[in-house]
Design brief:
The protein is mainly α and 160 residues long. The protein has two domains: 64 residues, no CATH class; 84 residues, no CATH class. It is built from eight helices and no strands. Helix 3 packs antiparallel against helix 4, helix 5 packs antiparallel against helix 6 and helix 5 packs across helix 8. The protein is elongated.
Length: 160
Amino acid sequence: MKNIKEISAFYYLCLITGYYSKQDIIEWADRCIAEFQFPYELIELSLSKGRSLNYIASILKSIYAKDVLNEPLYKLLGLLVQNLEDDQITNDDFFTYLNRILSEGSVFTINEELHHAIDRLDDGYYLATEGIYGDLDTLKDKAIEDLKKYKEYISIFEEA
């Protein structure tokens, strides 16, 4: 079991990319309150149904330490790849999540190699959807190939 800071970082990334909803975050906080020792901020999360996504994200951000975002980000990427392979999300959803990771990159640090890979895929998606260059099927295969190594991180937060 990972610590609450690392799990909070994972949920933060999922919230800001739109992979999880506000309700998903609140339900997770409720489970933590019922089952584990928890920081006070989880009670705030649990009671934040009427609050904005930014407010909820700021609470999650206050729980985690900035230096714990690598593994949570890798888990999210692994889940996205798995969901894309299993047709649980569309190409549009997948590339929207990647774009949001890039857009929120100033909030957390993405290593240069990963940033470059996501940026190339994001650009490729734009070019393919605009009919300028490439096609979505080839790009989907490339995305899966480039990011499949992150699937090994899926199990690192079993309760997340």
